[in-house]
Amino acid sequence: MGLSGVLLALLSPRGSSSCCGRGSSGRPSSAAACLLVVLSGVLCLAHIGGVQGYLFEGSPTSFAQFPRWLPGGNGSLQFQFLTSEPNGLLLYTDDGGSFEFFEVKLVEGSVRLRYNLGGGAQLLTAGRGLNDQQWHSVRVTRDYNRTRLEVDGILEVRIVSRALDHEFGSAGVNTPVWVGGLPDLVARQVGGRLTLQVVTLEPRFRGHIKGLTYITRDSIPRHQDIVSSQVSA
């Protein structure tokens, strides 16, 4: 049986004996937990008790890689997360080792944005008690010398007049956007081209993340798909 046949066999309704615990209607029963595992073995796409999104186990090698974020002088990215853990790296990207970076992480249940656009590292923090197993929304917005962090409608703004570069790197040098952690080879590379080297020491995220979306100068939201990922066996 080929790959498509395996997936169809897993997902087609077969009554209560189905691997996902489907009832006679073909829908998962309320007590069922369905888990679709991409057969390459690198990613879990979970639908468990109504929870949808990418499942990060928080292991020493877990991560997901998304396309580069190129906001220009005015753009944003947004996503949602769900977790019971108070600490963990949500997202990181930089300009290939010069001076600009964006790091979003959970610190004691709050979302903290640390970034540098050439005028020195800045911090913004929003939310409290976000490790409550509920979905929370995060949005980071670049607006020239203004940077905004919004968590569940709570907005924090920082104005940095001495920023050297309002464009945030370029397509030729920026790293991908890493979510939940960094690839093991990047994290272990001595003298690697990471602008914020200490990001490799951050605890990896454990929980669910979904809906990563970029908005650039044309103001059109674009949902992002995973480029590569890894979970431990």
Describe this structure in words.
It is a single chain. The protein has two domains: 3-54, no CATH class; 63-230, Sandwich (Jelly Rolls). It is globular and about 35 Å long. The protein is mainly beta and 233 residues long. The two termini are 24 Å apart. A hairpin with a 2-residue loop joins strand 10 (136-143) and strand 11. 6% of the residues lie in helices and 41% in strands. Strands 1, 2, 3, 5, 10, 11, 12, 14 and 15 form a nine-stranded antiparallel sheet that branches.
Count the beta strands.
16
Which parts are unreliable, with pLDDT below 50 for 5 consecutive residues or more? 1-42
What is the 3D shape?
globular
Q: Please give the CATH architecture of the largest domain.
A: Sandwich
Q: How much strand content do the residues show?
A: 35-45%
GO cellular component, one term: membrane
Signal peptide: 1-18
Organism: Meganyctiphanes norvegica (Northern krill)
Protein name: Laminin G domain-containing protein
Task: Spell out the blueprint of helices and strands.
Blueprint: H1 3-11, E1 33-37, E2 44-48, E3 51-57, E4 63-66, E5 74-82, E6 88-94, E7 101-107, E8 110-116, E9 122-126, E10 136-143, E11 146-151, E12 154-159, E13 177-179, H2 184-188, E14 206-215, E15 221-223, E16 228-230
Antiparallel strand pairs: 1-2, 2-3, 3-14, 4-13, 4-16, 5-10, 5-14, 6-7, 6-13, 7-8, 8-9, 10-11, 11-12, 14-15
Protein name: Laminin G domain-containing protein
Organism: Meganyctiphanes norvegica
InterPro entries: ConA-like_dom_sf, Laminin_G, Neurexin-related_CASP
